[in-house]
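Sat 14:20. Reprocessing the chain from the morning session after the first attempt stalled halfway. Input below, unchanged.
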Amino acid sequence: MSASVTLGAAVGVTALSFGLAAVSAGASVWQACVLSFFTFTGASQFSAMSVVGAGGSAVAAFGGAALLAVRNFVYGLALAGRISVDDDGRRLSLGRRLVAAHFVIDETTAMTTTQVTPRLARTAFWVTALSLFITWNLGTLVGALAGSLLDTQALGFDAAFPAAFLAMLPPHLRTRQGRLAALTGAVVCVALTPFVPVGAAILVAVVGVLFGARP
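Finished this time. Tokens:
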């Protein structure tokens, strides 16, 4: 499971940038850490803090984060048969399944679904989950503490959120549907920004997904 540990180290670097940028956006150290502990999904966290940092409302921040987290629901359905039972095939208790659900993210899904046996799948899930959870939260703490001691805006960390989302785009622009969705969302967002509250344009821009999904 060395791949899971290596992945955890890489995620820790991203968490470091999140902690720095969260403080730059106006969050305190404890707020950044609580968000990482209870949310534990990077894209949603970056989205929420970018909206808050731009002066948006909590409702807009939550809405954008929730939209990005919808994919985790689909991941949960895909992993249910692999991680909701023990080695003897018995269904786990509700409490244990709820704990497992907290760790259903992109990376744990990818590592779990590549395993050839149910037992290996469960092992991969939990090793990856714990590795990422520890490094994500430690990285957030270190980044937030550093951000509280540095002039993050003078150093340019306020650009971390837009940069993070730009880095996520290339894989999705390789298809016609992906390009259409991105273009539609961008046009809608730019057109509405002068006329609606901060963050609201991002929520409406989700209509780009509908256009991108069309054949």
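DSSP finds eleven helices and no strands in the chain.
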